[in-house]
Amino acid sequence: MVKRILVVEDETHIRKMMEAAFSRSGFEVHCVGSAEDALEFVETRRYMIFFLDLNLPGMNGIDLCRLIRKDNPFTICFAVTGFSTTFEVFDCRDAGFEDYFTKPVEIKVLIGAAERAFEKLARWRRDDTKWWLNSHNSQVV
Amino acid sequence: MAAVAAQKLQGVLEMAGAVCHELNQPLHVVSGYSEMLLDEIDAGNPLADTLRIIKTEIDRIGILTHRIMHITAYKTKSYLGGRNTIVDIEQSSAHDLKRCRNVLKGKESGRW
Asked: CA-to-CA distance for A126 and A130, rounded, in angstroms?
């Protein structure tokens, strides 16, 4: 299975740093700067792991997570944010985020989270869920 | 008096939010790149020690912003022999040093 990750982050330097960090660890990573761009990306490519900034221009990361998971509940989304409030955390859990990281967060922590998420996906890929994973997004690569 | 204290706390919280949000973005970039450089640099390279110091100090700022993010009280301390009063981040924050370190290292969750 290709370990493909989509990072949604509006700050250019953070995008470049995250791209370098995930690439050197063997992941196929794509980065976009807005929720709207992310939604366009998922139309054409299948992503199962997402790292989403919450404070995005236009649609925020929480609403983006809801939309992604509504379409594919098997996806695993991580929130990576610069500042957090208790209410935001409740919203994140409600939206279906797997975990929540406050910047600055160590690269090895993010890589570890991605590795564990892919292991989880491999466990879920059983015979009784394979039909769903295979039929879903059958048009995308 | 209580109303004034509440107003001051509100002001501190708003400023803390703004500072953390703005500071944590560049901090994340510098922290990430220095971590990658440390992974790649040969241990015998004379620059390795310098790089380690840079990373340690970045982590220190990260701990500070995590503490500022969890300010729950308005407590001050005197600065420069009582000539000025500043917010006592350590006393005002609900997060202790150990917990902040664990959060940064991913050993403990930031909120849940």
From this structure: 6
ipTM of the complex: 0.86
**Is-contact B24 B65, C-beta < 8 A?**
yes
Q: What is the CATH number of the domain that holds A18?
A: 3.40.50.2300
Taking the domain B2-105, which CATH number applies? 1.10.287.130
Nearest neighbour of A17 by CB, restricted to B29, B110, B112:
B29
> Looking at beta carbons, which residues of chain A come within 8 Å of B21?
55, 82-83
Q: What does pTM read for this prediction? A: 0.83
B88 in A contact zone (CB under 8 Å): no
| B88 three-class SS | coil
| Cα dist from A20 to B12, B70, B107, whole Å | 36, 31, 23
Asked if B106's CB is within 8 angstroms of A83's CB, the reply is: no
A85 contact residues in B (CB cutoff 8 A): 17
**What chain B residue is nearest to A86 in terms of C-alpha separation?**
B111
For chain A, the domain total comes to 1
Q: Is B76 on the interface with A (CB under 8 A)?
A: no
Question: How is chain B split into domains, by residue range?
Answer: 2-105
pLDDT single digits (tens) A70-118 = 988 999 999 999 887 666 778 898 999 999 899 999 999 999 999 999 9
Phi and psi at A29, nearest 5°, equal -125, 140
A141 is a domain residue:
no
Spatial CB neighbours of B112, under 8 Å, sequence gap ≥ 6: A89, A93, A100
